[in-house]
Amino acid sequence: MDNATATIAPSGATIDPREAAHFGTLAAEWWDPEGSSAMLHKLNPVRLGFIRTAIDTHFGTDTRSLRPLQGRRALDAGCGAGLLCEPLARMGAAVTGVDAAPENITAARAHAIAMGLDIDYRAGELGALSLCAFDLVCSLEVIEHVADKPAFLRHLAGALAPGGLMILSCPNRTARSRLLLVEAAERLGKVPRGTHAWDQFVTPAELTDLAAGAGLRVGEPRGIAWSPVQGLHLSEDLALNYIVTATRA
Length: 249
Description:
The chain is of the alpha/beta class. It is 33% helix and 22% strand. It has helices at residues 17-24, 38-59, 85-90, 102-114, 149-159, 175-187, 204-213; strands spanning 73-77, 94-99, 120-123, 134-140, 160-171, 216-218, 222-227, 231-235, 241-248.
């Protein structure tokens, strides 16, 4: 399915109904490290390493602390079934997770309860949920799936507290990402078919412009690359995927 041409979303909405339906069908396997979300499980430690460093740098927290987000509020927009929300909660944050697919939220709540974690999960349009004043706002591997990217960035910015930190990640739109993240990954069964539409990927320059339009200033992006020796790792190579901080301009 070509997700780029199949978007049927109401005017002004950020949720693409077909994208939400696609990911909703994967909800039951989200926490299976060998299931349809296996690549996210491999990606998560790399993202968390970047996030932890960004938290310590931005808020001046002790790098040795196990709970650097104690007393702070965190939002994960496009949370899936909670792969990022749960580590943020363990870092001490009061976490809210939002997703377009109700099935994902059901799976996320059940897993959080089983883990003894208190996380506020909500399904629906980010801009309709009246969320604000979060110290940390994350949206990882999400912007390439939304129907209205400028509106989505504005909603993320509106949820960020003054002095807060935002973290975004996205596949880059390059020839290499098309070959490896779409063609090879889907054909080899590494990710479910229909997960990615390459022309919806966002380049770092485009994300910088989108962020500026929402009153945000982005930091220096780091690539998330892969090699046979290191596996997935943070890199200067932005060709496949990248992760970046943002703050209010």
